[in-house]
Design brief:
The protein is an alpha+beta fold. The chain has 12 helices and 14 strands.
Length: about 375
């Protein structure tokens, strides 16, 4: 039997404590303010990191911080029109953390403003339904890969909104939460994809935040496909009933890929043939294809999964450093991403297992949605 490769070449950051848990409730403005007050240092640090990233990548991006703010102001009105409640959350975060709303708005629209020039391509998402688990539960796994400077800013949100289902989600710095699950039995992982039809519109982070408010799979998909979206992610969508979808989205097109055999994997390239026609520079996306096939093979070879078997997959190092468990070995400003956190979600029991930093060296901690 093929072995999972779990020994990295480099030594990742070690964390002796779990990521902080922030409990919030109330209106969207109040929840944002509570996030900002509880994580002010993290929000401020993430803005400093974003500013530094633009400075170090100026030759590639030709974008100053002031220019980025000007550009982001073109996107926020689209979010305000369709999802004013999440703009309210951003306003609350800015107030609570004592930062500029304009700076925070750019952070949440950065992928759109930079036209995906950052091209960070190493997230991995996996899921299995009740047919493929030892206890009949629905499970998801996700490695969040981003620049290592933002790793210290990870935290978990337990939210009880006045007008939406409670949810449990991971985020970092000043970003709206989007990877997690809610009390209505909806779960989501997001993987960046790179379409050629991007436009000025609703930022992807805002759309994916809206998914956490959904009560049915169809409602969740409608949020992913909201008109006048700037671009799209792949949303690995799960429902407590065992329904699993990859929803591949661009600014103007989408595809639904269904889990006919009870499992799904996705990385950072389009799988649907029609979506591949709008993929930007597919020849640059070799590592994501290797990672997808590796994750898929590891998923298929286990007949009955558990949270621990998904954690094992998320620790894999085949094709290191561009492996499922990704390690930053390149000093190039636009190619330094690593796995900054790893999650396994038990949607049936409403539990989140999260490892801070690379999961090959950091343990998973358990969080429960109380709803």
């Amino acid at each position: 039997m093929d072995k999972v490769i779990d020994t990295p070449v480099s030594t990742p950051e070690l964390y002796s404590t779990p990521p902080p848990l922030i409990r919030i409730s109330g209106s969207h403005r109040e929840m944002g303010r509570q996030i900002g007050e509880a994580t002010a240092n993290r929000v401020q640090h993430s803005l400093e990191n974003a500013r530094s990233l633009l400075e170090t990548a100026y030759d590639q991006l030709q974008l100053t911080w002031e220019g980025a703010i000007i550009q982001s102001k073109k996107y926020i009105p689209f979010a305000q029109e369709r999802y004013p409640q999440y703009v309210e959350e951003l306003l609350g975060i800015a107030e609570g953390a004592g930062v500029s709303f304009d700076d925070l708005a750019f952070l949440n629209a950065m992928e759109a403003v930079t036209m995906d020039a950052l091209h960070l391509t190493k997230c991995t998402s996996i899921a299995v339904n009740e047919e493929r688990t030892a206890d009949g539960h629905v499970l998801l796994g996700h490695n969040e890969d981003w620049v290592p400077e933002d790793e210290a800013d990870i935290f978990v949100i337990h939210a009880t909104p006045d007008d939406e289902p409670p949810f449990l989600a991971m985020t970092y710095g000043g970003l709206l939460p989007n990877i997690g699950f809610n009390a209505a039995g909806i779960a989501q992982c997001c993987d960046s994809v790179y379409p050629t039809d991007s436009r000025i519109g609703i930022p992807r982070v805002v759309l994916s935040r809206a998914v956490l408010s959904a009560r049915t799979p169809a409602e969740a998909i409608r949020h992913m496909l909201a008109p006048l979206r700037a671009a799209g992610y792949n949303h690995l969508l799960a429902h407590e009933s065992g329904e699993l979808y990859n929803v591949e989205v661009s600014a103007r097109q989408f595809a639904l890929l269904y889990a006919n055999e009870g499992y799904l994997a996705h990385t950072n390239h389009y799988l649907d043939h029609d979506m591949q026609a709008v993929e930007d520079e597919p020849d640059e996306l070799v590592a994501t294809r290797v990672r997808y096939l590796r994750a898929l093979r590891l998923l298929k070879r286990v007949q009955k999964h558990t949270p621990k078997t998904l954690q094992t997959i998320l620790r894999d190092h085949v094709n290191y450093p561009d492996s499922v468990c990704n390690h930053a070995t390149d000093d190039t400003p636009l190619d330094r991403e690593k796995t900054i956190t790893s999650l396994v979600m038990d949607l049936t029991s409403r539990q989140l297992y999260i490892a801070w930093g690379n999961p090959c060296k950091n343990q998973y901690h358990t969080y429960q949605l109380d709803a």
